[in-house]
Every structure is written in structure tokens, then in C-alpha cells.
Specification:
- This protein is of the alpha/beta class.
- The chain has two domains: 2-97 and 286-305, NAD(P)-binding Rossmann-like Domain (Rossmann fold), CATH 3.40.50.720; 99-278, 3-Layer(aba) Sandwich (Rossmann fold), CATH 3.40.50.
- 25% of the residues lie in helices and 15% in strands.
- The protein has a seven-stranded parallel β-sheet with strand order 8-7-6-9-10-11-12, with helices on one face. A five-stranded parallel β-sheet has the order 2-1-3-4-5, with no helix packed on it.
- Helix 1 (16-25) runs parallel beside helix 8 (289-305) and helix 2 (99-114) packs across helix 4 (151-159).
- The longest helix is centred in the last third of the chain and has 17 residues, at 289-305.
- It starts with a strand and ends in a 15-residue tail after the last helix.
Length: 320
């Protein structure tokens, strides 16, 4: 068995100790590492297993590929089975590894926007002790909507427990009890619930069903003090509608770790919109992100070698 590990900007090279653990999980396997930049078919043609993101246009040239494990929690761009030479390829993702880091990023954005830190950072850079202040909002006691209750949505609900928030969760299957949220509603109830929300946290994947889930009509339903945070996928929020809602003071602010388009072009109106906080899809990053990713892959690799069922499987029909 040949295993190829693809490193890129977000999936940094692992330590020698971690590499040794990967090798121990698949005794006898040939393991190589490559950088995604400049990768070619020759780097992957003999690989049975790949850990990392293969450029989609190369998949059709890899008939030997049996299992592709993504280093990301999302599978956007990789779920069209027609891209693959081997239609039996197993696709898995690194769900469950980013919840803590992304939740801290979300809380940071909520605080920064609620306390208007950007306003004071600018005053500080001007060395000006201002005698006025913008609107401030408390997270404590607020109503928070969490759209998407996978690992990230669940983890952020735990992080918010100390803020005494009223949390309403949204997901497709409401029949399964949630470990931290009592009020679970179907996605069909989202619009009628929006007027109650002080914060909306978007953690849902990007699919045909969630594309432009937040558009002009949704922003019209929100409170003027509402703040929306998106760590899911940029396509879930209509960027033009969001810019309009921010610049017309229809909502109080937005925190975006994902955008549509992405990367966000230099002249895009989102850059200059009112009270928006943008980070370049880095909410999952931390000093232990690589280790968390690799440990999930090691566990799955042991199962794969033993012929056991894998988890974190991507459904090609559902798109995630």
C-alpha cells in the first residue's frame, strides 16, 4: 500500500514523531509527503491512499486511488463522483478536529463586534482618547441561533454556556436529542425565528440547500442589533445582501471567516462595509491543529488497514 500526504498552506508539515505514528498505523506501507503547489499526476499515480486535498482536475487521472482523506472539515469541490477515475473511491474528512479552535474564534468575533473593538483600535492608532462611544451589546443573556449542529456548532454551544445565553439550534434532523441544546428546530423554522436573534452563528456546510440561505429577506427579519458570524461556507450568505444590510444599519455587524467569493477580491464591497470583521478562513488554525488532524487520520488508517468501517464519510449525493 502506498500512502501520499499532501501538505499545503493550511495543512502544515507534521513532526517526525507524528510521521512515525502514521507509519506505525500502517506497517509496511510506503509513505511519501508532497507539497500541493506544483503537484502532478506522477506524485499520486501509484497511491492507494491520499491524505490532503488533491486538485480536483487530477482525480480523473488516478484510477488506483481507493481512499481520499481530506485535511479539512468541509468537502466542497470534491463531492462530484464524476471527477474520480475510480468511482468506488472512499472520501472522508477531518470533522471533529476544529471545534475548539473555531469556537474560540467565534467567541472572539462576537466580543470584538459587540464591544466595537475596531473603533477603539482605530482611535488608538490615532493616539486619540475619544470622549464618545458606539453602541455596545452584551452577549450575556442574549438569544443565539446556531445554524448547523455538527462538531463546530456543538462546541460553540458549550463555549457559550458561561454567558447564560438562550441558544436555539437548527439542523435537518430534530428527532435526535442534542447534548447541550434543548431547543432544536428544523431549518424550515429559521426565518420565523430570526426576529428573536441577537447573534446568528452559521456553521452549516455549503450545499445546494444552504446556498444563499441568508439573503435580503432574511436580513430584513433580523433585529437592528443582530450580529451574524459565518464560519461555515461563504455561499450560505449572499454577499451583496449582507453588504446592503450592514451599510444601511439594518443589522449591527458581521464576522466572516469565509466569504463568497473566496479569496475575497481586493475591490469587493465587503472590505469597506460597516462593522464587518473579516479573517481569511483561518478560524481552525492553532498550534495543535496539525496534530489533531493527523490523529484523526491515524485512527481512520488503523480502521482501514483492519478492514473496519470508517467514520467521517462524505456522502457524494448529499455533498457533505
Amino acid at each position: 500500500m502506498k500512502i501520499t500526504i499532501i501538505h499545503d498552506y493550511f495543512f502544515r508539515e507534521m513532526s517526525e514523531e507524528l510521521f512515525a505514528e502514521v507509519q506505525n498505523a500502517a506497517p509496511g506501507a510506503e509513505i511519501t509527503t508532497v507539497q500541493q503547489s506544483g503537484i502532478s499526476v506522477d506524485d499520486l499515480i501509484d497511491s492507494d491512499v491520499v491524505f490532503g486535498r488533491i486538485p480536483p482536475h487530477l482525480l480523473i487521472e488516478l484510477p488506483n486511488l481507493k481512499w481520499l482523506h481530506l485535511a479539512s472539515a468541509g468537502a466542497n469541490g470534491m463531492t462530484d463522483i464524476n471527477l474520480y477515475a475510480n468511482k468506488s473511491t472512499i472520501l472522508t474528512k477531518s470533522s471533529g478536529t476544529f471545534g475548539i479552535s473555531i469556537s474560540e474564534h467565534i467567541i472572539g468575533m462576537m466580543i470584538a463586534l459587540s464591544r466595537n473593538f475596531s473603533y477603539y483600535y482605530k482611535r488608538q492608532s490615532e493616539r486619540y482618547w475619544c470622549g464618545s462611544f458606539p453602541n455596545f451589546y452584551d452577549i450575556y443573556g442574549s438569544t443565539v441561533l446556531i445554524v448547523g449542529l455538527g462538531n463546530i456548532g456543538t462546541e460553540v454551544s458549550k463555549h457559550l454556556s458561561g454567558f447564560n445565553c438562550r441558544i436555539i439550534g437548527f439542523r435537518r434532523n430534530v428527532s435526535i436529542p442534542h447534548e447541550t441544546i434543548n431547543d432544536i428546530r428544523p431549518m424550515s423554522k429559521l426565518r420565523e425565528t430570526l426576529p428573536e436573534a441577537d447573534y446568528i452563528i452559521v456553521c452549516t456546510p455549503g450545499t445546494k440547500e444552504t446556498e444563499n440561505l441568508f439573503d435580503q429577506e432574511e436580513f430584513k427579519l433580523m433585529k437592528k442589533r443582530a450580529i451574524i458570524i459565518n464560519v461555515g461556507r461563504g455561499m450560505v450568505i449572499n454577499s451583496g445582501a449582507l453588504v446592503e444590510a450592514l451599510n444601511s444599519n439594518r443589522i449591527a455587524g458581521a464576522g466572516l471567516d469565509v466569504t463568497d467569493p473566496e479569496p475575497l477580491p481586493e475591490g469587493h464591497p465587503l472590505w469597506s462595509a460597516k462593522n464587518v470583521f473579516i479573517t481569511p478562513h483561518v478560524s481552525a488554525a492553532s498550534d495543535v491543529t496539525t496534530e489533531r488532524r493527523v490523529m484523526v487520520f491515524i485512527d481512520l488508517l488503523k480502521r482501514y488497514v483492519a478492514g473496519q468501517t470508517l467514520y467521517n464519510l462524505v456522502d457524494f449525493d448529499e455533498g457533505y
